[in-house]
Amino acid sequence: METMVFRGGYQDQTGYEAIRYRVEGSRRYKLPSLDVFTTIRGIDLWSTDFDSLEPVNPSAGAGRLPLNQAGELSDCVLSGDLPCTVAAGGRRRPVTIAFSRDLHRAAAPLPDPGHRLRLTLTLDGVCYQVTDDWFEGGVPRLERALPPGTQLMCCVTCLFSDLLTGRAWPDRHPLPPRSQEPVPGCPLQG
To answer: SS in 3 state form for 139-185?
Structure first.
């Protein structure tokens, strides 16, 4: 089982910290799925997605990181360079999706129309950018912005992704079809 590691950043009212994300096969569930891990200010965090990272040891984050009532990271901005593959014309090649996820608490009730996720991909010298509320909606929108016949393959679209199962507003973002196989670089790929 591979582990995918990529760089990112964490920004809150006290400053910026460069971080690394680690995505690997989950040991928490019987069905194949992915977990996301990182360390911020010396505190280990985990989740099944980027939107709800929480301290591995809940007492470790108290007073050291901004956490919401559910114990999840909030009042900050997470960023990263998500490794991805693009398929077009029978060829596959690596690309990077740069993301910025604003986890500041919304002044308005959910769903917040502010689109707190920004995804950017540069392909053949052209920059494609979309905003959305969730990775589950943003990645398919980014894919639709690419030239016809171009397919994105990354952890969000993978057969083993939990990101496509727990959607709060499926009427706002129709679910994209899941890949019928693990995508290249998937930590669960054998």
So the answer is: HHHHHHHCCCCCEEECCCCCCCCCCCCCCCCCCCCCCCCCCCCCCCC
